[in-house]
Design brief:
323 residues; alpha/beta; Rossmann fold; 8-stranded mixed beta sheet; two-stranded antiparallel sheet; 16% strand; globular
């Protein structure tokens, strides 16, 4: 992938991870660290962390995940189960002759990281989850619950049996990324709360607003990198991750819901997606857990507050996974 707009970010090479080829950016030498992005992102989202971690003595590996960027894009929904997503990371380790690595995930990447700690803990030296805490497997199908509690327009429910979002996002990827990746969106959410009950998040509704709210996060050059990548790849692969919520719930029925590896959670004070109560609720399920919060920061932590995040990461790594 050509990252000419960001010379600090290394070029990608294709690595066969077993099932598919992943476009992988690498830098540095030493103990391995994998960086797993979320939706709608790319390995490029880690452009501020790669040089900092590599400079501290780590071998940093940042793939475009399955369905994204220059990585493989299998056509079927069943190609994006949690077993496939965690399997890509295991396959990548095998291809690179790595026994273990610290996995750092953001957004959907954090969900993959938590689940890998349950499904393949022997391949993890530790984990860092940004913004999304650990959620235990619920007693009922999560889509059934979301549809009942949040309605059919809630974005995860909307994704399930419709390709409307795939098409709408692809019509103007630049507009969609600009609407999604903004800072200080929580101010708008608080205003809504004062008027009454907070409305479930609808990405299609956000896209239709004349004023998306918040403040611009990306530079024009950074926005171009995202828009160009999604213009080529589309959004169906990334949205297929969401279409496996029910499958993932069924297929992990007998998996113990305890994370037994060293864990760091980095939350953001103004994250419009996750509440403090959800962060507190994970503590009994993650015995070796450190929690750090970043103030005046929304959901896109590694891009909104890169220096503060890098300091937190390097502090934890120096104690738990020294280079």
């Amino acid at each position: 992938m050509n990252q000419s707009n960001s010379p600090r970010f290394p070029d990608a090479t294709l690595v066969n991870a077993g099932d598919i080829d992943l476009a992988v950016h690498q830098a540095g030498e030493g103990p391995p660290i994998f960086l797993v992005h979320g939706f709608p992102e790319l390995a490029f989202s880690w452009r501020h962390q790669v040089p900092a971690l590599a400079g501290a003595g780590y071998h940093v590996v940042a793939p475009d995940m399955r369905g994204y960027g220059e990585s493989g894009k299998p056509p079927n929904v069943a190609d994006y189960t949690i077993q496939k997503l965690t399997g890509d990371l295991v396959g990548l380790m095998d291809a690179m002759d790595l026994e273990k690595a610290v996995i750092i995930g953001h957004d959907w990447g954090a969900l993959v990281t938590w689940q890998m700690a349950l499904l393949a803990p022997e391949r993890m030296a530790g984990l860092v989850a940004l913004n999304i805490p650990f959620f235990k497997r619920p007693p009922i199908n999560p889509i059934t619950y979301m549809r009942y509690k949040l309605g059919k327009d809630f974005y995860i429910v909307n994704f399930q049996n419709s390709d409307e979002a795939d098409q709408r996002f692809a019509e103007n990827p630049k507009r969609f990324i600009d609407v999604m990746m903004r800072r200080r969106l929580i101010d708008r959410q608080k205003t809504k709360k004062k008027r009454g009950k907070r409305r479930p998040l609808s990405l299609l509704e956000m896209l239709d607003r004349e004023d998306p709210g918040g403040e611009v996060l990306l530079t024009p050059e950074e926005l171009h990198v995202y828009a160009e990548a999604f213009a080529r790849s589309g959004f169906t692969g990334p949205i297929n991750w969401y279409r496996n919520f029910a499958h993932n719930w069924k297929s992990t029925k007998r998996v113990e819901q305890i994370v037994r590896i060293p864990s760091l959670f980095v939350g953001a004070s103004d994250d419009a997606i996750v509440s403090r109560s959800q962060i507190e609720a994970m503590k009994p399920s993650v015995p070796d857990l450190e929690i750090r919060m970043i103030n005046d920061c929304g959901h896109w932590t590694q891009q909104e507050k890169p220096e503060e995040l890098n300091e937190i990461l390097l502090s934890w790594l120096s104690r738990r996974y020294p280079a």
